[in-house]
């Protein structure tokens, strides 16, 4: 019972973050904000949803000596969680960095244009 | 120019013939087609034979792998040879062995073409993650190869994943550093070793007077009770050969294509 409630909680929280990521992806003004929404929202929501699946699998276990194949499924799901936790933020970072080097300007306050100066950038290109 | 016209014409004619032949195929999933229903009064259905007898013949639960590596072993062997041929073709067309008449590099700035990891913060992030991820990918690829006859997977898929892990290392760090660990002579040699493993396993049954690729004869070599387990074990050996070839050719293609055959600089 408590396992089911916990898994429902995890999955629903994950879906809320998914919704936030989707809204941010469509509504934010520039590349970096959208990258931020997609990267953070996607990572956290995927982690939560898959952890929810892992917790849900636990409720089929009565006796560890007989039900160890279920435990294997849980371990595989947790391995997926670890892998996403490693790779998803890295790809977001790499994409944002590539955008910065390629000269995509973020939306900034007037008067702070000197923040855009960086040696490793190409000259600014118009916002796609 | 003439050669280009000739090449385009031959490609077009071959493609037209192949497309014309497609119309003669039975419909996809047609239960009345000869492979599914057999020929009336003639040969029985091949599909039904595989589905009903694969486990009895080979003790392999995954029928796809059994058909691919055992019943149709010739086909898969020459598929692997096709991959090797593609790799050799790319080597022959692209590889620039003499440095002086090499075409201009894609990006002449050495600091950007052969980028270093230190001093570049984001390459530290990407490089570290990829160095952590690459061994995990390789372990999973070995699992896919070794588990090919119990679950979806096998030599081609596992080989592609192994090759992709090396490509990931070359993309995140530098190609030069990856080439010191998996050099050109290494991967070209391993591409041939894969074929030798496959064809060698096929030749061994001929030693005791059986047919080429008739793995059942290897039960003495593998010290198994029946011929079924020998066939199962041989499938694993064959998949390993396929994986070695596919891995090497994947990386060879990436190294040659990304550097225009110079194996220096690159992405």
Could you walk me through the main structural features you see in this protein, from its secondary elements to its overall organization?
With 128 residues, chain A is mostly helical. Chain A has one domain (2-106). The model of chain A has no long low-confidence stretch (mean pLDDT 85). Chain A has helices at residues 2-27, 31-58, 68-101. With 267 residues, chain B is mainly alpha-helical. Chain B has one domain (60-258). Helices cover 69% and strands 0% of the residues of chain B. Chain B contains twelve helices and no strands. The chains are: A mainly alpha (128), B mainly alpha (267). The interface between A and B is small, with 7 and 8 residues.
In short:
The complex is a heterodimer of chains A (128) and B (267). Chain A has 128 residues and is mainly α.
| Biggest interface pair, counts | A-B, 7 and 8 residues
Number of folding domains of chain A?
A: 1
Roughly how much helix do the residues of chain B carry, as a percent range?
A: 55-70%
Percent helix of chain A, as a range, is 55-70%
Low-confidence stretches of chain A: none
**SS elements, strand count of chain A:** 0
Number of helices of chain A: 3
Give me the count of strands of chain B: 0
Structural class from helices and strands of chain A? mainly alpha
- Average per-residue pLDDT of chain A, rounded, comes to 85
* Overall morphology of chain B: globular
- Would you tell me the overall average pLDDT of chain B? 85
Percentage beta strand of chain A:
under 5%
């Amino acid at each position: 019972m408590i396992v089911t409630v916990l898994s429902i909680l995890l999955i629903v929280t994950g879906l809320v973050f998914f919704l936030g990521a989707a809204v941010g992806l469509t509504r934010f003004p520039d590349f970096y904000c959208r990258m931020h929404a997609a990267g953070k929202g996607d990572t956290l929501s995927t982690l939560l949803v898959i952890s929810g699946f892992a917790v849900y699998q636990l409720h089929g276990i009565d006796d560890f000596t007989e039900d160890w194949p279920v435990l294997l499924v849980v371990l595989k799901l947790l391995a997926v969680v670890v892998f996403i936790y490693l790779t998803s933020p890295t790809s977001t970072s790499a994409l944002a960095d590539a955008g910065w080097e390629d000269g995509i300007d973020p939306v900034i306050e007037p008067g702070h244009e000197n923040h855009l100066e960086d040696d490793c950038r190409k000259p600014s290109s118009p916002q796609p | 120019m003439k050669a280009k016209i000739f090449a385009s014409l031959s490609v077009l004619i071959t493609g037209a013939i192949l497309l014309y032949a497609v119309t003669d195929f039975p419909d996809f999933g047609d239960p009345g087609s000869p492979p599914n229903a057999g020929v009336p009064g003639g040969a029985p259905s091949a599909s039904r034979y595989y589905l009903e007898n694969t486990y009895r013949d080979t003790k392999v639960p995954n029928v796809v792998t059994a058909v691919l590596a055992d019943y149709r072993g010739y086909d898969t062997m020459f598929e692997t040879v096709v991959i090797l041929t593609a790799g050799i073709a790319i080597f022959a067309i692209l590889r620039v062995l003499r440095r002086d008449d090499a075409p201009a590099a894609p990006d002449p700035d050495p600091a950007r073409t052969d980028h270093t990891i230190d001093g570049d913060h984001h390459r530290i992030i990407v490089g570290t993650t990829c160095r952590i991820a690459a061994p995990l990918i390789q372990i999973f690829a070995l699992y896919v190869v070794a588990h090919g006859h119990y679950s979806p997977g096998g030599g081609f898929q596992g080989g592609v994943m192994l090759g992709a892990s090396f490509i990931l290392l070359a993309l995140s760090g530098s190609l030069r550093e990856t080439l010191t660990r998996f050099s050109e002579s290494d991967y070209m040699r391993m591409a041939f070793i894969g074929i030798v493993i496959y064809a060698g396993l096929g030749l061994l049954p001929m030693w005791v007077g059986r047919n080429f690729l008739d793995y059942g004869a290897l039960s003495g070599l593998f010290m198994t009770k029946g011929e079924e387990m020998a066939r199962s074990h041989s499938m694993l050996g064959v998949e390993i050969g396929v994986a070695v070839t596919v891995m090497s050719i994947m990386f060879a293609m990436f190294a040659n294509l990304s550097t225009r055959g110079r194996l220096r600089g690159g992405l």
